[in-house]
Amino acid sequence: MPPARRPHMTLIVGSGRDLVRVAPLYRELRRRGNAGLALVLTGQERDADLMSGYFRGLTLPQPDGLLEPGVGTRSEQAARTFAAVETFLRHGPTDLVVLQGGSDLMLACAVICRQQGIALAQLEAGLRSPGRSESLIGEVVDHLCDYWFAPFPQAAEALAGEGLAPERILQPGNLMLDTLHACREAAAARTWETLDLREEFGAVLLSSPRMLDNPMNLRKIAEAIAALSDDIPIAFPLSPEARRRLGMWRLDEELKPSADLHLPDARGFVDTFALIGRALFVITDAPDLQDQASFVGVPCLTVAEATDRPVTVEQGTNLVIGPDTAAIVKHCEAILEGRPLGGPRDRPARLGRGHPERSEGRRKQGALPEDDGQVAGRIADSLEQFLASARGQREIS
């Protein structure tokens, strides 16, 4: 009788920012070596160079699979992803698929796994942001899964409220915080050649197509940046796509690089984390950057209409204001004056510009709950239990 096949799980990851979250778990599972492990990328990252930078910054090996959806409409990309993930799973038998992300392509992966009877776990489940299509897709992906890891209590409450089995909803903490712990020293050593990171500055980081593809919203952000740069240097790293959009909407004429407005090329995760950690404030539309700003205690203004990181708002480090020029300028000016984020509240004011404690040790690292750097270990423990159960079920069937 041939030996029994070794249990196997596959991690399917969406964008480079999803890779940032899954990196500590991937390393922990490889360290344990209790099961076969494959890392698959959906290929949704637009910038290949930036994706390579994520791998280098996180010191990860090359992925075992790339689904390569190509270009075209969302439906065309999803169709190619259906075929690609089906082919991969056929040639690499797996007992448990672990998803990180909630995009259209991740939905295609989940559907194929469900059709083939493969158990599914979602690493970042229960994230709901009212009015955003991404949140709706994420909800559908969650409902196709068998196991859910909720990074925040609000996420667990959302899953339970939607009728999902409470005994399979786990709350190990926010996996992103493990990555931030691991990369903190590396980020402290990074420099941006065109910037003097010893000086005080504000950081603007935009990434979502919902923002970059909307000329009205992008113009409001540009007007706020131009106004703020009269008062404090602004660093606004641009991906190739963001730079192209600014040119398409003729906003590059309004945002001309100067001594007070820096427009460097966007970089990978560690460099971006370094920039956030040294900024007086962060203006962003990206949930992962809201996590990073809260981790280092930097005031964050979210220019999306909503956030799926409510814990950062409750923590007092994040304020959701939408793409409103006047609101952005008003709240940034308040931050520079050392006032609390969002106005008078029952918490101490942030350290404003010129504050003597800003130079060293000015922020308490790890401001978010469940911040012990051990989230990956707790998730790995649960995944190994799920894997054993899933393997048993597949053998029975």
Overview of the structural elements:
By secondary structure, this protein is α/β, with parallel strands linked by helices. The chain folds into two domains: 192 residues, Rossmann fold (3-Layer(aba) Sandwich), CATH 3.40.50; 170 residues, Rossmann fold, CATH 3.40.50. The protein contains 15 helices and 13 strands.
The counted number of beta strands is 13
CATH architecture of the largest domain: 3-Layer(aba) Sandwich
Name the helicity range. Answer: 40-55%
So how many helices? 15
Oligomeric description of these chains: single chain
What portion of residues belong to β-strands? 5-15%
Tell me the radius of gyration: 21 Å
> Strand order, biggest sheet?
3-2-1-4-5-6-7
By secondary-structure content and strand pairing, the structural class works out as alpha/beta
Name the features:
397 residues, alpha/beta, Rossmann fold, seven-stranded parallel beta sheet, six-stranded parallel beta sheet, 15 helices, 12% strand, globular
In short:
The protein is α/β, with parallel strands linked by helices. It is built from 15 helices and 13 strands.
Structural topology:
Layout lengths: L7 E6 L2 H17 L3 E6 L6 H11 L6 E2 L7 H18 L4 E5 L3 H12 L3 E4 L10 H12 L2 E3 L3 H9 L7 E2 L4 H14 L13 E4 L3 H4 L2 H14 L5 E2 L4 H9 L12 E2 L6 H10 L2 E4 L2 H9 L4 E3 L7 H5 L3 E3 L4 H12 L38 H22 L1
Parallel strand pairs: 1-2, 1-4, 2-3, 4-5, 5-6, 6-7, 8-9, 8-11, 9-10, 11-12, 12-13
